[in-house]
Amino acid sequence: MSIFKRFGVLIVSTLIAFSCIGCGSESSSTSKVKVVCTIFPEYEWTLEIMGDLADDAEVTYLLDNGVDLHSYQPTAEDIMKIGSCDLFIYVGGESDEWVEDALKEATNKKMKVINLLDVIGDSAKEEVLKEGMQGEEEEEEGEEEGPEYDEHVWLSLKNAKVLCTEISDKLSQIDKDNAKTYKQNLESYTAKLDELDGKFKTLADNASEKTLIFGDRFPFRYFADDYGFDYYAAFVGCSAETEASFETIAFLAGKLDELSCDTIYTIENSDGEIARSIIDSTKNKDQRIAVLESIQSVSKEEMDSGATYLSLMEKNYETLKADIG
């Protein structure tokens, strides 16, 4: 764990102590189902499974200001919402090290909890420093820690089906009177996930190019493995690095030349500087930059404009189709 993460956990512990003063074990005076989600996909899936029932529930999305999952730290208000909710959903990777302390102080002892990485179990993938990727400073200095899992499980539509089923099951346990509705909504949403999954499979099976090159972090390992794509990138998906070395840029430029790739990818909110440096180091210097959505920190403004989990995954489909279809 980096010193910044350790400091963040200490801050959270302090926030918990202050936020719980006066809370006691007082239960909520409302019968509303309360759900707290850390990231956008969890929030979207919950709303889809609840359907019209969401109008009478309290569903909170903690990262609605667009902050990156890897740098998020909860406020005292966030801690209080988590502590009194009926269902708390979080990713469960290194970015969520603050969660353990938050759950210890929860006032609702009947709370249900979903850890996405735990739910997918053996399907969880360790982060791999693939050829050409630039490692974190800690790794380069030889600091040994336990395995770090790739947190971006939601970018697999197959994982999404498993995780939505878990959300439906937990909601049914909390709100037994509406269990049938949750199941029906799950079936309807799963059909949409299956349809898009089929489109991606057909695209991948017929793709003119099966290698994706990223001048950025690479949060798409689950997605790439689902459809048989190979990849090269500047950094692993959860990397905090923002500047690529000369060696990394040269390696990726060489791959663009070797594979005759017309496109280099970035994720949303990238300034594109690394991608442009890579292009400038190629022979032809005429590749285009395309953006793929990682869907981890969608802002309230984007949601108000109609962004959904499916619409953003569909956007990724259209981007890839234009480049490799």
Descriptive account of the structure:
Helix 1 (3-19) crosses helix 3, helix 2 packs across helix 7 and helix 10 (246-259) packs across helix 11 (273-280). Helix 11 links the parallel strand 7 and strand 8 (288-292). Strands 2-1-3-4 form a 4-stranded parallel beta sheet, sandwiched between helices. A two-stranded parallel sheet has the order 5-6. A two-stranded parallel ribbon has the order 7-8. Helix content is 45%, strand content 13%. Residues 1-30 and 138-142 have low confidence and may be disordered. It contains 13 helices and 8 strands. With 325 residues, the protein is α/β, with parallel strands linked by helices.
Q: How do the strands line up in the largest sheet?
A: 2-1-3-4
Mean pLDDT, to the nearest integer, reads 88
Strand content: 5-15%
How many DSSP helices?
13
The secondary-structure element order is HEHEHEHEHHHHEHEHEHEHH
Shape: globular
Query: Helical proportion?
Result: 40-55%
List low-confidence stretches.
Answer: 1-30, 138-142
Number of strands: 8
Biggest sheet statistics: 4 strands, parallel
**What structural class do helix, strand and pairing data support?**
alpha/beta
Cα distance spanning the termini: 41 Å
Describe this protein with a few key phrases.
325 residues, globular, 8 strands, 13 helices, 4-stranded parallel sheet, disordered N terminus, alpha/beta, two-stranded parallel ribbon
